[in-house]
UniProtKB/TrEMBL annotation:
Record organism: Oceanospirillum sediminis
InterPro entries given in the database record: CBS_bac (IPR044729), CBS_dom (IPR000644), CBS_dom_sf (IPR046342), Diverse_CBS-Domain (IPR051257)
Domain called CBS: residue spans: 11-70, 78-136
Presence of keyword Cytoplasm: no
Record-given protein name: CBS domain-containing protein
SUPFAM superfamilies with a match to the protein in the record: CBS-domain pair
Keywords assigned: CBS domain
Length: 136
């Protein structure tokens, strides 16, 4: 039964997005304010071009990039190679992809290739919890 649960049923309604020219500290403020660990980066047309995570920011702190004034935008910190999933995929296959790829989140695309959401490990755990509650 869990296999029939679709990503679109559990991805959050609110999608925080960053732009490549956004100041990195503004992006960090938004992650902290909205209690998210990452968000997609989109260009002026709304096309997915990357993802920015807390881990990306932290890795750059360790490398000393935060003190480089020329590196103050999201574009400098984001990960450009992004794995995506489709909104109609089942959560079991997405959970397996998360485990295999060591990812905590996937941008969600519709069948036309447009960004429609984000699903995280926490969202998948909510599915499992809800399923377990309904079995009791």
């Amino acid at each position: 039964m869990l296999k029939s649960v679709r990503v679109s049923d559990y991805m959050p309604d609110l999608l925080i997005r960053f732009t490549p020219d956004m100041n990195i500290f503004s992006a960090i403020d938004q992650m902290l304010e909205h209690k998210i660990s990452g968000a997609p980066v989109v260009d002026a047309k709304g096309e997915l071009i990357g993802i920015l995570s807390q881990r990306d920011c932290l890795q750059n702190v360790i490398k000393g990039s935060f003190y480089d004034d020329s590196a103050d935008t999201v574009a400098h910190y984001m990960t450009s190679e992004v794995d995506t999933i489709l909104s109609d995929e089942d959560v079991v296959s997405v959970a397996q992809k998360m485990i295999r790829s060591n990812r905590r989140r996937f941008p969600v695309m519709d069948d036309t290739g447009h960004l429609v959401g984000m699903i995280t490990l926490a969202d998948i755990l909510r599915v499992i919890r809800d399923f377990a509650e309904h079995r009791n």
